[in-house]
Amino acid sequence: MSEAQKYVWKGAIPLQIHLHESEVTTLPPPSPALVLAPRIGYLPLLVSLLKPHFSTALPPGVDTIWFEYNGLPLKWYIPTGVLFDLLCMEPERPWNLTVHFRGYPSNLLLPCEGEDSVKWSFINSLKEAAYVINGNCKNVMNMSQPDQVELWGSVLNGNLESFRRVSSKLKLETFDEQYTENIDSVSTKSEQTTGDAEAAGQVKTSGFSWFHVRTFSHPY
């Protein structure tokens, strides 16, 4: 199992989340929420942590959570780690975000109906990645319901072992293998020294997986 993949799955980003001032109805305003968010997670899935923290300060209305960073609404279907890497040129610790529970910007963001929307966006991205890797997405389309449940649960819980168990059935490692073969070919043709060959071997171990494909299939 790739060490790089393990680091990604175990990675988390410290967030300091502020309720937007237009939605604050109490004095003093609520303190920001401090959350350690998984890199492979999605911001809307933090609602169960944030709603109790801010609920007493919210105005009447229907909750529809969305986030912004420096005034930019964040696309909820992009993993938190990818958003952070794309938007923080000089990484903040913690990353300061603003959360809204009202005024969803439907002209800027796709509708999000909670966890189900995030789940099906994830599955659709998986289909896209499968097509890029294998030329078709039949394996994903034919995935059993139990496997779908386990795969999504592995993302929610950060369970890499479970994720790899299901994804291996989908034969989504082809891209990784092709990448390794290309590295081998380049190494042979260039007649590198022993030291260079060892370095190339280290690069191979962090080869691409379907997860890398899908997280960048929706550029910001």
From TrEMBL:
This is Autophagy protein 5, variant 2. InterPro entries: Atg5, ATG5_HBR, Atg5_HR, ATG5_UblA, Atg5_UblA_dom_sf. Keywords: Autophagy, Isopeptide bond, Ubl conjugation. It comes from Pisum sativum. Belongs to the ATG5 family. The keyword Ubl conjugation applies. Residues 8-101 form the Autophagy protein ATG5 UblA domain. Residues 115-171 form the Autophagy protein ATG5 alpha-helical bundle region domain. It comes from the Eukaryota. GO terms for molecular function: Atg8-family ligase activity. GO terms for cellular component: Atg12-Atg5-Atg16 complex; autophagosome; mitochondria-associated endoplasmic reticulum membrane contact site; phagophore; phagophore assembly site membrane. Gene3D superfamilies: 3.10.20.620, Autophagy protein Apg5, helix rich domain. One of its GO terms (biological process) is autophagy of mitochondrion. The keyword Ubl conjugation applies.
